[in-house]
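User: Could you go from structure to sequence for me? I need the amino acid at each position, not a summary. Structure tokens:
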């Protein structure tokens, strides 16, 4: 008997039980091969999602940066505040996503 990650909810489950104890997903009807394929698909989807997020955060960061230099918003204006927030969020989001990608690859 082996402990696997449930392909439906991601929680730990036994590969010998018929259904996942956490979400009730039917494990018994799947072969080990199908299970591992499902888990691999899930992992790949996660990786794609992380890459998309890295892309979006970079676009937000560079976009707000370009906006800042194009428009040169006035000091203490609402526009400057908005552009700076967007830059900060884009930068922080990008860094967080990069860390998550490193952690994801280490799994
Ligand atoms: Zn489950």
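Assistant: Here is the amino acid at each position, in order:
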């Amino acid at each position: 008997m082996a402990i696997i990650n449930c392909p439906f909810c991601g929680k730990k489950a036994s590969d010998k039980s018929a259904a996942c104890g956490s979400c009730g997903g039917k494990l018994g009807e799947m072969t080990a091969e199908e299970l591992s394929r499902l888990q691999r698909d899930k992992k790949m989807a996660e990786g794609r999602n992380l890459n998309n997020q890295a892309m979006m955060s970079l676009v937000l960061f560079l976009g707000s940066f370009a906006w800042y230099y194009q428009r040169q918003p006035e000091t203490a204006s609402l526009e400057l505040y908005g552009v700076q927030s967007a830059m900060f969020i884009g930068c922080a989001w990008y860094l967080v996503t990069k860390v998550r990608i490193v952690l994801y690859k280490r799994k």
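One structural detail worth keeping in mind: Strands lie at 3-5, 12-14.
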